[in-house]
Amino acid sequence: MVIALTTIAVILSSNFYLSSAVVSTPRNPKKGLSFSGAQSCATLESHTDSSWWYTWEYRNGFSGSLKSFCADGDNAVTNARASGMEFVPMFWGATSIPSQPFAQATHEEFVAASNLLTFNEPERMDQANMTPAQAAALWPQIEAIAFTYDLKIVGPCMTKDAYSWYNDFLAVCTNCRVDYTCIHTYYQPMPCTGPDWECIGTTDPSKSETFWLENVLNNWYNNYGKPIWVTEYGCYPWDIAKEGCDAAKHEAIMEQQTRVFEADDRVERYNWYSTYAFDDGFRDGALNVPNYDVKHGTTCLNNLWLEGIFESRGWGIHQYHECVASAEANTNCHKPLRLSFDDESCYCSTDACDLPIVSYPQMHLYVESSTLSRDSSALTVIGQQYDSFGGNPPATPAPSKLASSSPSIRATTSPSQVTSPTKAPTVTPPLNCGAIDNSKVCNNETGGLCTWSGKNKVCTSTNPAPSPHSTPAPAPSGGGGCSSYSDAKPCKNAGCAWSKGICV
User: Fold this and answer.
1) Backbone angles phi, psi at 82, to 5 degrees
2) Nearest-CA neighbor of 158 among 254, 232, 214?
3) CA-CA distances (angstroms) from residue 146 to 140, 174, 178?
4) Which portions of the sequence form the region Disordered (predicted)?
5) Residue from 219, 162, 220, 181 nearest 490 by CA
6) Is there a contact between 215 and 264 (Cβ–Cβ < 8 Å)?
7) Are 247 and 286 in contact (CB under 8 A)?
8) How far is CA 24 from CA 49, 84, 205, 251, 309, in A?
9) What is the pLDDT of residues 194-214, one digit of tens each?
10) Do the beta carbons of residue 307 and residue 290 sit within 8 Å?
11) What is the DSSP string of 159-201?
């Protein structure tokens, strides 16, 4: 990329206005930024080292209908592009490709772009959920758009070991143009305490500390011969109770993976996503103090994330409009942040670090759990819950957000005044609804009995709970050949369904 002239956002008063200082800073040509939903204008300005951003959509996150959360979103995007940042549009899934001719705003986005991202984890039921044949059938549309706007095509963004799906895709898409491969790499940092498959490296003295990550990069490059985009990487599993990642592990895996990506010329671009930790049933930003008090007490955000050694790295810090609205009224709020998708969590990074985080009136969450049909044609609401950090739900719930518009989102928001410190109810999972290998896929799911609740991190019943002696409805049987892609759940053959860890 180019030497950038970057506008630095400075918070000077309770009005949260910006003062511009022009500085010359080189942007890292590999490093990206990711977020979903409406953004504060300061999001791009505060990430001075990133050279690109994406939103899991073909919309940039600032313009058009989102202007109410960034008063001059068009100008924010124009300034970012002038300073060396590229917005990379994405066609997330099968229904994400806009019809042509494009609307003027969409046309302008693609004129300004250089690259196009495609389907997000299509091998997973909880993501784009496509067969290789479905993806191949849509590829002519993608190529036509890329040709019209002179874009490089980034292939489907796969979990790191989903070779089977990708091989099948290439087999049915024999003449398809793909300029880059795209993968997601989640690992435990060295030294590892979890299972081998989660570990980035090995204690074998003859191998490197990041051996398994390097092995994955070797496989993807050697098998497919294309430069690699890593559009998501981080620490996994997120659940601390299951050998997951606390703040120290997140920082360690960030350093270990980034070091490899920077040194490997085959890695074209990378983007950190994201920081989670489980504690007391809540998913919080793990680079915060990983403590329940972060939502209910006086613990402040760990400023190491923005103002310490990671200050200019441009990671996937997610700003959310209700957090912004509540934080702008406080002179001590340095940057309003959202670090969690599942809970739409808002945090305020303060300079003083001594103010109650939940003293602001707008921090209300409306959570609606839904299940998306396998063909993505129907969204069924299976439960509603309000979490206003203590408070009552609004009279009219906010509309649900279709899951396919952003990565794994299960929550929407609605503003409400926080009036009392009551705690949101706890959901107890019914019988026979345990999750399979922490993958958010529940036992008996194909029988219509159980569905994952992202808010409560449990599998819940979609029908009345069965008696202790009842038998779950059987999954449809397709006979032999019912294998799945990777460890991802979609079954290869018609008549097959996922049940209790296998395709049947």
Assistant:
1) -65, -25
2) 232
3) 10, 18, 11
4) 390-429
5) 162
6) no
7) yes
8) 11, 11, 43, 28, 20
9) 666 578 998 888 999 999 999
10) no
11) ETT-HHHHHHHHHH-TT---SEEEEEEEEBPSSP-S-GGGBSS
